[in-house]
């Protein structure tokens, strides 16, 4: 691999930026200063450092985003800000994409990666990956709704798999509820449509978890971090190479 490509892949900056770092003698290969972007390196064997810090080459990258409302779960859009706009240069260079979609007005946990096989496995209906949502609802959800969820809600075009509805609180005076909903599917507007099928309306929707990934309490809305090793270990159940 060319040295400049390696440096860009490591998230150091654009091709022209890394060229400047090379010119300034800030990059070493096996301890020797290298200034030519064309130098061929072996990313598995050679030790590459920038300003004395060793760089490691990653094929796959994993980002956990606390998606805010108003941003779309796509990689590009002519009109709206996308989740990619919230990540860093490395994410864009590595061409990460969201694993499944959240509606523009849904907030919460979103995984982004460039590991297509993992995304495919996590989204496969056969894998039954549970997604947990917290919803604010206009209307009082009750025992009958819990039973309907458990039985499998009938939508116009789809009978939902059995799902779990937990009622966290009800404000009888305001006629509102806060609920937690667990589904293993990912149909378009599924949670909103399931609640609508009970004659009520979701007014706020937050995703709390997807499989073993849980929205961290300290991850501010609109911010992200890379998955920890522990979180990656949790994804090994899919049997997909992660590195
Ligand atoms: N269900 C919905 O209705 N919307 C989402 O964004 C996710 C699940």
UniProtKB/TrEMBL annotation:
InterPro entries: PsdUridine_s_RsuA/RluB/E/F_cat (IPR042092), PsdUridine_synth_cat_dom_sf (IPR020103), PsdUridine_synth_RsuA/RluA (IPR006145), PsdUridine_synth_RsuA/RluB/E/F (IPR000748), PsdUridine_synth_RsuA/RluB_CS (IPR018496), RsuA_PseudoU_synthase (IPR050343), S4_RNA-bd (IPR002942), S4_RNA-bd_sf (IPR036986). Keywords: Isomerase, RNA-binding. Residues 1-66 form the RNA-binding S4 domain. SMART domains: S4. One of its GO terms (molecular function) is isomerase activity. Pfam families: PseudoU_synth_2, S4. It is an enzyme of class 5 (isomerase). Its EC number is 5.4.99.-. Belongs to the pseudouridine synthase RsuA family. This is Pseudouridine synthase. It comes from Streptococcus raffinosi.
């Amino acid at each position: 691999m060319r040295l400049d490509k390696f440096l860009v892949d490591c998230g150091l900056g654009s091709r022209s930026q890394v060229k400047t770092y090379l010119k300034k003698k800030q990059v070493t290969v096996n301890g020797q200063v290298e200034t030519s972007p064309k130098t061929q390196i072996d990313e598995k064997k050679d030790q590459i450092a920038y300003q004395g810090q060793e760089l490691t080459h990653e094929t796959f990258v994993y980002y956990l985003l606390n998606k805010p409302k108003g941003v779309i779960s796509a990689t590009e859009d002519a009109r709206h800000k996308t989740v990619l706009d919230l990540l860093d240069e490395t994410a864009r260079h590595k061409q990460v994409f969201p694993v499944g979609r959240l509606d523009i007005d849904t907030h919460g946990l979103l995984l982004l990666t460039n590991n297509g096989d993992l995304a495919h496995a996590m989204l496969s209906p056969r894998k039954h990956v549970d997604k947990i949502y917290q919803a604010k609802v206009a209307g009082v959800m009750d025992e009958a709704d819990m039973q309907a969820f458990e039985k499998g809600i009938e939508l116009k075009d789809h009978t939902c798999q059995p799902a779990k509805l937990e009622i966290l609180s009800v404000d009888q005076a305001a006629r509102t509820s806060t609920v937690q909903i667990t589904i293993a599917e990912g149909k378009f507007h599924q949670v909103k449509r399931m609640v609508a099928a009970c004659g009520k309306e979701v007014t706020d929707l937050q995703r709390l978890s997807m499989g073993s990934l849980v929205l961290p309490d300290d991850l501010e809305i609109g911010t992200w971090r890379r998955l920890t090793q522990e979180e990656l270990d949790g994804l090994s159940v899919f049997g997909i190479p992660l590195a």
